[in-house]
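Posting for a labmate who doesn't have an account.
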Amino acid sequence: MTIGTQEQARQQEDSQQEGRLAQVNMAFIAAIVAVATIGGFMFGYDSGVINGTQEGLEKAFDLSKLGTGLNVGAILIGCAVGAFLAGRLSDRFGRRGVMMIAAVLFLVSALIAGAAPSSAIFILGRLLGGLGVGAASVLSPVYISEVTPAEIRGRLSSVQQVMIITGLTGAFLANYALAHSAGGSQGLLWGGYPAWRWMFWMQVIPAAVYFLALLAIPESPRFLILRGRDAEALAVLTRLFGRDAAVRKVADVRATLIQDHRPRLADLKDPATGRLRPIVWAGVMLAIFQQFVGINIVFYYGSVLWQSVGFSEDDALATNIISGFVSIAACVATLFLVDRVGRKPLLLIGSAGMAVTLAAMAYAFSTGTFDAAGKLALAPGIGRIAFISALAYSALFNLSWGPIMWVMLGEMFPTQIRGSALAVAGFAQWTANFAISVSFPALLANVGLPLTYSFYAASAFISFFLVQRLIHETAGRELEDMAG
């Protein structure tokens, strides 16, 4: 085929896509995506609010370093359970129904964590919040993928990561403002309560908004078909895509389902071999290695990390905000690339880039010396290398593995096994998150930053080859065309 012929074919394909999209109710889809991604904001806010509260927790509850790790990581146990249960429950009670439960959990968690009189009560509050975060993390992207056109599905699903980082940055901004107003995270604010408690209570506002907004959007049409409610699904799809497309989609979804039983975990096994399907292993790999590259050390322990290399508490919190805005910019860039460049190329770029930047950070930390207070001190030039590498690393993650993993998990599985596969992949993701996050304080104290970051760099390096081998491109494909 000549270059001219290729260009004509590309133009014809673009014209066909524009024609299909012209029939889509984009205003309605945009409203639905906006509401669903508030779950991403809550995911980010609830995950990031802990960043900057550690000193207050340690003083209030007299915590050891291990105790701090458990209080910080408690949410992740809830996340693993929440992700697993949400994937399964969403096949029974609906994507929207379970997201509404998550919104209630966010609100209750904020109230309990802020008022906790002891470490045990605080951990309980964070566990409840984790159930909500785990549910939102897997259901927001799958809900978005089930109500959006294939041509722009990646772009709209990537909004989830933008909102996660926006939530994180919102938590950093709120924490910074509260700590600055009180003269530190342990300073007193309204009602005589310390700032770190108000950092948790601020979450009540977006949690209430999330719950109320969910009342205004419909249930996923693909879930409705799973439950045999074809008439309701047809009504939703007609409003989304027009009558003719809606009729075709109902028939296409119905054709992909196994008629003799409802979705179940056993469907994850290949009937021919009795082993987990390769597509499930691919999803689990994506979920685990997204955490093994260490991104949540930046999210959860950013202020501790930068204080350990000589930043003040105030400067460390400000650095988190800078990192948050860089990450948002990278996520926005992904919106323009994911459907045109594809999922797999972005994952490969991210793996290679993160391996280099993490290795640079490990090298920078290896050159440091310890001052009289036991804090790691870096030479000015090396400190800049560490800081720039950290920003580049955050940008690369949020250009690639951050949004793309959630996009892929939302769309790569066939309809029949989507809920069950999400349960397994979501559980794996949050279990890996827990292991990495809880181990960091002990590694920081006993092994040191150079070796810790060398492990993250090695994980990024390995992930490059796993993506090459296991991941298949999904850009532009209808959900009903996904093979298991």
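Reply:
Got it, the structure tokens are right above this. The chain has one domain: 21-217+258-481.
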